[in-house]
Amino acid sequence: MNEQSAQITPGEKTTGLLQPMQATRRGLLKGVLGAISAFGLGSILYAIYRFLAPGAGGGGPVEISMSEISAAGTAFFQYGGSPGILIRGEDGALKAFSLVCTHMACTVTWNGEKKEFYCPCHDGFFDGEGRVLSGPPPAPLERWKVEVKGDKVIIGAA
What we know:
Blueprint: H1 3-6, H2 25-52, E1 62-65, E2 74-79, E3 82-88, E4 94-98, E5 109-111, E6 116-119, E7 124-127, E8 132-134, E9 143-144, E10 146-149, E11 152-155
């Protein structure tokens, strides 16, 4: 192959290995949008998998030592990927609740003085048993099973 045959003149069509590589804005934009689309689709498929997969929400029961319960009678923990609170009542009974509001999944706060939960997102209030007092929440807070074994409190035991 000589130098003359390897040169490409404007408007000339080529085939095979002599095809010039042209980077255009349109090609670059297609590549970037393709990568973003692939990432988005992957994220959606992973979210669906995590929702449908058995045990995707998190591990097993949570153990809390009795010494970890504060003087106010509360202990915070994570259960199944959700924040939770363990409350010791005046009668000594232990109750565990999810701190995720049933309205729009905001994190609620516990007011120990008033013995109620408050959701700052839309002014929702729950009583000390997790029942809706006011606001838009459609259902009470999720309550988890509590079992005491010696000096340990086990939350979520089957």
